[in-house]
């Protein structure tokens, strides 16, 4: 059975079609990349899947159950976690407390929530910063906090929104290792939105390409980069050079 | 002594406000309606049916919590300023209803008659203030212990997360709407309990002094001045503002034409907090402490 299945998904804001007739399946244990130029509708699609938006057309099945129009907290309880690209941390929660908020989804006990959060922070090399506020951290650490918080909810499916944006090459390598660990050791199925092609190419079993709200291609990373339509729509120069570097419109 | 009692009362009001206003970040300017519900429940039950304070206290809290659910459900569909204005509206509507309801004395209010010999612990009737002082002191400590537990519990964390970023909180599995309603109900119970006490302490209640907008604003202001979202904030706020209120009231009240000036001063304080230190006095203290800790 598919873990997740989108069937003719559409989302329009007034007259603007942000997502149009998108259908795809995710198999348990997959790692899928979701790419496309800015404004292609990637984050909108994530928001529909995670229940933040109610799709205006189509259906979403999660573990065979119709979850179209479910609330975000209901999706989280069913095992879907979504990270956000921009983490606005203005408040007074420190890192440990942030992660604890995630673990409180599955427990009422403060002690249990705390020990789970601490072990996640340990794994993510954030132990020493547990008492810091998120806003005071370097970007790479912020991204790890966001991941740790999402993982604390014990997801089956994790939607990662640009976890590598703003990272340097060394940090991107670390992030790749981290996502692999989540996928292999925690057995979490992952869909990732990413502009950093290196990460998408190294991690994804399969790539979905969105452009102007539509799914224009789907396939293995090595095949996807050769499709003219995809190259034209978006791919970064490094992966587009072989065929038509001048055509890339880049993001 | 009267000032101390008022300080403790406002501290507990502020603690209640702090659950939803401070930890939850939902600015509530309608707390007076629950003071009114608590005070009137106790007064009416005492006058009509001779029911002692300790029995009317939970009834008043229960009624207030019921009312908070009824209005909380639609109110928390609103955000930010809209929510704040709606809380003012519900509070004023309830006040108008009370003013025109003759069963509970209408606009002239109610006067609780003396029941038997004083000191009367059942009906909370005392000649000397210190009895009241010790009773409200017990309320204060119970409130403080509860708040300390609350802020470290599941709901406390969830509210702080909602305040941080509601969208993120919701995708972490928090039913934000329900969490706010729950916190609002807790806030209500605190406020209604002190409302009941207020009825016995004053013997005399009327909609104007238990349910006015001034009272709602003052409760919110004390908590914000002291530090919204911190354990000690409402207490610090009450410690500063209650003496100031009494002093200003006496001073301006004596001079004709200056009666509203204290309100202008309060609004000035609100602007200062908003502009310079949203975390209030407690925010300043913790900032200084953090600096010291780094210096060492």
Model description:
The complex is a heterodimer of chains A (251) and B (296). Chain A has 251 residues and is α/β, with parallel strands linked by helices. Chain A has helices at residues 42-49, 72-78, 95-103, 110-123, 139-151, 169-184, 197-203, 221-224, 228-233, 237-244, and strands at residues 4-13, 16-26, 31-35, 57-62, 65-66, 80-82, 157-161, 189-193, 206-211, 214-219. Chain A folds into 2 domains: 1-79 and 157-251, 3-Layer(aba) Sandwich (Rossmann fold), CATH 3.40.50.300; 85-154, no CATH class. Helices cover 37% and strands 24% of the residues of chain A. In chain A, the strands form 2 sheets. A 6-stranded mixed sheet of chain A has the order 6-7-8-3-9-10, sandwiched between helices. In chain A, strands 2-1-4-5 form a 4-stranded antiparallel sheet, with helices on one face. In chain A, helix 3 (95-103) crosses helix 4. Chain B is mainly alpha-helical and 296 residues long. In chain B, helix 6 (154-164) crosses helix 8. Chain B contains 13 helices and 2 strands, in the order H-H-H-H-E-H-H-H-H-E-H-H-H-H-H. Chain B has one domain: ABC transporter involved in vitamin B12 uptake, BtuC (Orthogonal Bundle). A two-stranded antiparallel ribbon of chain B has the order 1-2. The chains are: A alpha/beta (251), B mainly alpha (296). The interface between A and B is medium-sized, with 32 and 22 residues.
**Rg measurement of chain A, Å:** 18 Å
Strand percentage of chain B: under 5%
Task: Return the CATH architecture of the largest domain in chain A.
Answer: 3-Layer(aba) Sandwich
Give the count of structural domains of chain B. 1
Q: Please report the number of helical segments of chain B.
A: 13
Mean pLDDT over the full residue set of chain B: 84
Largest interface pair:
A-B, 32 and 22 residues
CATH class assignment of the largest domain in chain A: Alpha Beta
- Main β-sheet description of chain A: 6 strands, mixed
Our count of domains of chain A comes out at 2
Q: Which structural category fits the helices and strands of chain A?
A: alpha/beta
Which sequence of strands runs across the widest sheet of chain A? Answer: 6-7-8-3-9-10
Global outline of chain B: globular
Tell me which oligomeric state these chains represent: heterodimer
Strand order of the largest sheet of chain B: 1-2
Secondary-structure element sequence of chain B? HHHHEHHHHEHHHHH
Tally of helical segments of chain A? 10
